[in-house]
Design a protein that fits this description.
Blueprint (H helix, E strand, L loop, with lengths): L1 H13 L2 E14 L2 E13 L4 E9 L2 H14 L2 E2 L11 E5 L2 E7 L6 E2 L2 H10 L4 E7 L3 H14 L3 H8 L3 H6 L1
Parallel strand pairs: 7-8
Antiparallel strand pairs: 1-2, 2-3, 3-4, 5-6, 6-8
Helix pairs in contact: 3-4
């Protein structure tokens, strides 16, 4: 039975897609000259509402990306997606990076810049309007976007907290 459970975990990990957001070459000056290493920011997701981000640092590009993917798999969150969009407007903030995401009509597509676009597409959001304000640093923008997505509440949760039915929630 334990073996079957392990296969299920591997199957869910294998359906995760990964997207490189940023790759940065950093130099450390030593007595013998400059030593270069790489820092990679990666987002992973299944396109059905699960998304995570990770940072990996190593001397080699492929190794830093692999480390970032492993880190991202440890930071997965669930995002409520209804009819290909998000349930309501939300702001997110991390450091000086601020983002605003807003639901969009069917056929709009993902209208977002750079790092935000990668996170939203990997999460499985198909129609959204998004604006990045403040810092354009990919680290902060990715984390601010994840913060906004983490703060989203599904219509079921909102109806339950107000003590009304889903039909009554969508009436007004």
């Amino acid at each position: 039975m334990a073996n079957r459970k392990d296969n299920r975990v591997k199957a869910s990990e294998s359906e995760l897609k990964e997207k490189l957001v940023n790759l940065n070459r950093v130099a450390k000056v030593t007595k013998g000259g400059r030593t270069f290493s790489f820092a990679a920011i990666v987002v992973v997701g299944d396109g059905k509402g699960r998304v995570g981000h990770g940072l990996g640092k190593a001397r080699d590009v492929s190794e830093s990306i692999a480390k970032a993917v492993d880190d991202a798999k440890k930071n997965l969150i669930q995002v409520p997606i209804y009819n290909g969009t998000i349930p309501h407007e939300q702001k997110g903030k991390y450091g000086a990076g601020k983002v605003f995401i807003k639901p969009a009509a069917d056929g709009t597509g993902v209208i977002a810049g750079g790092a935000m676009r990668a996170v939203l597409e990997i999460a499985g959001v198909q129609n959204v309007l998004a604006k990045s304000m403040g810092s354009s640093n990919p680290h902060n923008v990715v984390k601010a976007t994840i913060d906004a997505l983490k703060s989203l509440r599904s219509p079921i949760q909102i109806a339950r907290s107000r003590g009304i039915t889903l039909e009554k929630l969508f009436e007004g």
